[in-house]
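Subject: mismatched residue count in predicted assembly?

I count 578 residues in my input, but I want to confirm that the predicted structure covers every chain. Input:
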Amino acid sequence: MTIQDFRNILPLLIIAAASVLLLVLIAARRNHRLACWLAGLALAGAFATSLFPSGTMPQAVGGLLAIDGFSLFYSALLSAAGLVVVLLSYPYLQPLREQMEEYYVLILLAVLGAVILAASRHFASFFLGLELLSASLYALIGYLVKSRDRSVEAGVKYLILAAASAAFLLFGMALVYFETGVLGFSDIGVHLAQAGALSPLAIAGFGLIIVGIGFKLALVPFHMWAADVYEGAPAPVSALVATVSKGGVVALLLRFYNEAGGYQFPSLTLLFALFAAASMLGGNLLALLQDNVKRILAYSSIAHLGYLAVAFLAGGKMGAGAATFYLVAYFVTILGAFGIVAHLSSGEEEAERVSDYRALFWRRPWAAAAFTAMLLSLAGIPLTAGFMGKFYIAAAGVEGGLWALLFILVASSVIGLYYYLRIVVAMFSQAEEQKPVKLRLFSGAGLILALLVVALVWLGISPQAMMGWINQWVAG
Amino acid sequence: MTPTFIEQGMLLAAVLFCLGLAGLLIRRNIIFMLLSVEIMLNAAGLAFILGGARWGSADGQAMFIFILAMAAAEVSVGLALILKIFQKYKTLDTDEINRMNG
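Triage response: the counts match. Full output below for your records.
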């Protein structure tokens, strides 16, 4: 590798170096605040070096990584999401009696895995990035061993199912490798274009890879882990699972499909269309039955990944742009929603039942207002980021002629309104007994949440700036 | 290696994978579920080695070493979590540990 290569992968190097440094620091002296600062600075550094790359683009680093506008945009997005999670974690973990410092090492490693996924162009880096992400998530989900009963249970559930999905993915890769003899995405694309049609072995291989990816994105029918994991994990970790883990895999899927030429095979497209439809309907219908806010958000995120799959299926530059914009809007919204849950949680009790939010507006007006904004954006009400995201998806879907999927998207969004508004109504309902109004205008987490609300409204009112960047970086 | 040998090997890999999957679905003890997943991973590893043999390249073997390393990392985290589960519930039966559903 040359100096130029090292400059290109600077965001990856910063996160990796910070995680090692943090481990050494923990061995010397435990300090929660210092660990949080170091992790936050590293992620901010990765964000800055992704936005202002010092190398020349686009650049292939070895056969494994591609550093181009696409991967740098996603690496900035994922680092920013990781930074928000770190900042939300500090006040959440502070009152607990746990060893908190390793938590930040794991978050750094999870973000590193996702960034590698976004940049990978080879099965080996795909697999390594995915496993780096998964292995850190096992530990993060089960992190609160002492203070939360369900945390370890959720960790083990995720471990068994994620390991099984990794086995599916690997077996699929092995079949594709057996058939084509190459592991790089673009080499596979060349091979498939020459072959013309897919052989049965290649179809089986791609099918297994899609199962593995579908599991990570929690698409129906591979969604069974999502609700339990979101409920059991600490709230900031649920936010990490919903954003960084899914975002990295979406980035990988977009690149893999484009370079391997997956769009030319109708059987694969049909499979994805079925998953997308099942996720949109299944996620929204199952959410109706829930009484736990974290579970509602879990099913809501299943439905949102279904919407995103529509943009992905539309294909082309417009599809990639719409998918990326939707992902940005989804990141802002879901980080905000879990941020509110984490913010309202006190010590060992999380604010997770809908009844915990009853009359919240009269007790914590600012938190209730922010949560309302997030929920309206998830529902896709105009003037929010979620609405513009759906708008771009619909435009891309019309372009691609996906009428059936668009119809399901609209119908399931209407179903979704019901459970989002149920929480909103609970928050604004009158309290039975008058509790003293507690106004906490300013705190670290409050500032982050306020910024997320601003971003949400900004994306909803004038999306052109963000869409311009996306077109320039991702589709350009 | 002859082509028939490689084909039989792929068949073996597929059988191993299905055995692991069946074990994962049937078994109720977490340790056995983890073992079944390991069998599935090794089936994938075998398929990679056979792919490498078919094309005469070392890529398949490199992937196998990655799989070994990843499986080891996964088992170490998994066993740590299983220890915690056992301390808490005094059982490894997944039906009894399952508190969340819906």
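Strands of chain A lie at 59-61, 65-67. Marking this ticket as 'not a bug'.
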